[in-house]
Design brief:
Elements (H helix, E strand, L loop, with lengths): L5 E8 L5 H11 L17 H6 L6 E7 L2 E7 L7 H9 L3 E7 L6 H12 L3 E7 L8 H12 L7 E2 L8 H11 L12 E10 L3 E10 L2 E2 L3 E4 L5 E3 L2 E5 L3 E4 L1 E2 L4 E5 L13 E4 L20 E7 L5 H14 L4 E7 L3 E8 L2 H14 L4 E3 L6 E5 L4 E4 L11 E16 L3 H10 L3 E8 L2 E9 L7 H8 L5 E12 L1 E8 L2 E2 L5 E4 H18 L7 E7 L2 E8 L15 H21 L7 H4 L6
Parallel strand pairs: 1-3, 1-4, 4-5, 5-6
Antiparallel strand pairs: 2-3, 7-8, 7-16, 8-15, 9-14, 10-11, 10-16, 12-13, 12-15, 17-19, 17-20, 18-19, 21-22, 21-23, 23-25, 23-26, 24-25, 27-28, 27-29, 27-30, 30-31
């Protein structure tokens, strides 16, 4: 189709503000999907997406409206996937900003608006759920006006559920979003904004053709990874795959390739034709290799299932290029994998998929982040778990990742939020207001936010607090490794990195929890926490007490003492040779914070 009749746009919103429902109504209105095929959250194809009510994998779809071709990209709403969102925005010229009329602007709304402004997109503000009794249209309208600097008549008030005024949004996309700009006779350059692995067809790329044109059967090359392939089939999505002979400049579509894994065609890479390589096509800006910064050990309950776990993770990694893993061996848990994730939600989703789709029974270790260790001779080592820390005498400094975050809450909860930030060794940077909402900007160490920061934020702000973050930098801190000993034996799998000021508290808290889950033995078991050779906390699990004097009837007291002494001697010997079996729940306790 001619460039002037094409409009590429996406929908950005906070989780649960009605993004997928609005996409459903648009598909229905434009006749892309018939009433019979319609189901709610049509673009959310994963069972998990429907259950959690979030978009995990973005999906493009092509619609026809009043003679125009409208290409919509449905983006993920969660902070873990902000790089995917930024690549989707780079493939568009406009964005529909959806704000819930009952909840107002939330943290992820702000984060995505900033990304859209950076990408120089035309933003169309939309107020959703105006038909709800709890909707506060005047207040939320003024919040949006303050944020975007627009007038009230520019804000479209809709109800995505009933379809009220959704036509106006489609018309606004045609009027306000500019046509794609690209050079038709230039060498091919297409931006990959998503890729996934299909069991039957191989790697499928979702692309936006920026310059040139692509025909079926063309030999293609990825500029960042250098991988070569063939465009076996090309076409558009409406919402199923519809094969086309050619993709023109400015269009959005898919390419079925003969590549074996998504690592060869990463999100943000530039696709060009092998023939045009001599003309040296310039890569499109903004590509970066996504690096995981949350790591967790995954083990199976039975060691026989390790092979199944490895195969399952390898299959998921084919379609998720951000997933990185390496084998790990623990004396207590046996063989497992250490897997890197983009964030905690990403970890949660992978864990659920492994358990549901592959029927695995998993033990997940305490998640940690990666640390940059500078040795005395100036070399740098990157460690992903506390157990990998080199000998402390050879370490000059340890750097940990810090994040830049933003929390949005109603004004009355500011005190509780600031207290939470301080508890996590965070530093408040800025405090501003949009109407009655406070925006708190802060910096904090990533490791302290990993386990239950989000839960704590929700409970302290009665569920109103929303949070978004991105990685700031790595900073040298006074960090130590806290080791845990069970019956005098160090358990590597329980070791954690902590700031020296927090180490004693972590030691006490963890030994207390371990005491609750490790079963009692016939002998006394000591649970200890230590930094290097110095013990900082201890709990004792008492031995089972069997009354060996029960069958005695009267007689001299020395007979009782003799029997008790004999029992004590036996327990001492048992303690020397006895082995304490640590149940898998002991590792799960590390994830729970009271």
């Amino acid at each position: 189709m001619k460039q002037e009749l094409v409009r590429n746009f996406c929908i950005i919103a906070h989780i649960d503000h009605g993004k997928s429902t609005l996409a459903d109504r648009m598909l229905e209105l434009t006749g892309t999907v018939s009433k019979r095929e319609m189901q709610s959250q049509l673009l959310d194809s994963m069972e998990l997406e429907r259950e959690k009510g979030i978009t995990i994998k973005l999906t493009p779809v092509c619609m026809n409206w009043r003679g125009y071709e409208l290409n919509l990209i449905d983006t993920p709403g969660h902070v873990d996937f902000s790089y995917e969102v930024s690549r989707s925005l780079a493939a568009c010229e406009g964005a529909v900003l959806v704000v819930d009329a009952s909840q107002g602007i939330q943290a992820q709304t702000l984060a995505n608006v900033y990304l859209a402004i950076e990408a120089n997109l035309t933003i169309i503000p939309v107020l959703n759920k105006v038909d709800l009794p709890a909707a506060d249209v005047p207040r939320v309208s003024s919040e949006v006006m303050n944020l975007l600097g627009c007038s009230e008549d520019e804000i479209i008030k809709i109800s995505a559920k009933t379809g009220l005024n959704v036509e106006q949004v489609l018309d606004a996309v045609i009027e306000k979003v500019p046509e794609p700009r690209g050079v038709e006779d230039a060498p091919l350059r297409a931006l990959i904004f998503d890729s996934y692995f299909d069991d039957y067809r191989g790697v499928v790329l979702y692309v936006r053709v920026v310059d040139g044109r692509l025909a079926k059967g063309d030999a293609i090359r990825m500029l960042a990874t250098g991988a070569d392939g063939l465009a076996l089939e090309i076409g558009r999505l409406s919402p199923g795959m519809v094969a086309e002979p050619v993709l023109e400049t400015g269009e959005i579509g898919y390419i079925v390739t003969n590549l074996k894994t998504t690592r060869e065609a990463r999100v943000g890479d530039t696709v060009t034709k092998e023939v045009t390589m001599r003309a040296a096509a310039e890569p499109l800006p903004g590509y970066k290799e996504v690096k995981p910064f949350v790591y967790a050990g995954f083990f199976t309950v039975s060691n026989e299932e390790y092979k199944d776990l490895k195969e399952a993770v390898e299959r998921l990694a084919l379609s998720d290029s951000a997933l990185q893993f390496e084998p790990e061996n623990s004396p207590v848990l046996g063989f497992g994998l250490r897997i890197g994730f983009l964030g905690l939600l990403h970890m949660d989703i992978i864990r659920e998929r492994l358990e549901r789709e592959f029927n695995l029974d998993l033990i997940v270790m305490n998640p940690s982040t990666d640390y940059h260790v500078v040795m005395s001779d100036g070399t740098e080592v990157d460690i992903k778990s506390a157990a990998d820390l080199p000998d402390v005498s050879r370490v000059a400094e340890i750097r940990e990742p810090w994040i830049r975050g933003e929390i949005i809450v109603p004004g009355s909860y500011v005190g509780a939020v600031l207290q939470l930030i301080v508890e996590r060794r965070g530093v408040q940077k800025n405090l501003s207001y949009i109407e009655d909402r406070a925006i708190t900007a802060f910096e904090a160490p990533m490791a302290n936010l990993l386990t239950d920061f989000y839960d704590q934020l929700k409970s302290r702000t009665s569920g109103y607090g929303t949070f978004s973050y991105d990685l700031a930098d790595y900073r040298a801190e006074d960090l130590v490794r806290v080791d845990f000993y069970v019956a005098g034996e160090m358990v590597d799998a329980l070791s954690v990195m902590a700031h020296r000021s927090e180490a004693a508290a972590i030691g006490r808290e963890t030994t207390k929890k371990l005491k609750e889950v490790i079963p009692r033995q016939n002998f006394e078991v000591a649970l200890q926490a230590a930094i290097g050779g110095k013990f900082i906390a201890r709990e004792t699990i008492g031995a089972f007490r069997k009354d060996v004097t029960g069958y005695l009837y009267g007689g001299d007291v020395s007979r009782k003492k003799k029997l008790l002494a004999k029992q004590a001697k036996g327990k001492k010997r048992m303690k020397r040779f006895g082995k304490v079996d640590i149940p898998s729940e002991a590792f799960a306790t590390m994830l729970r914070h009271e």
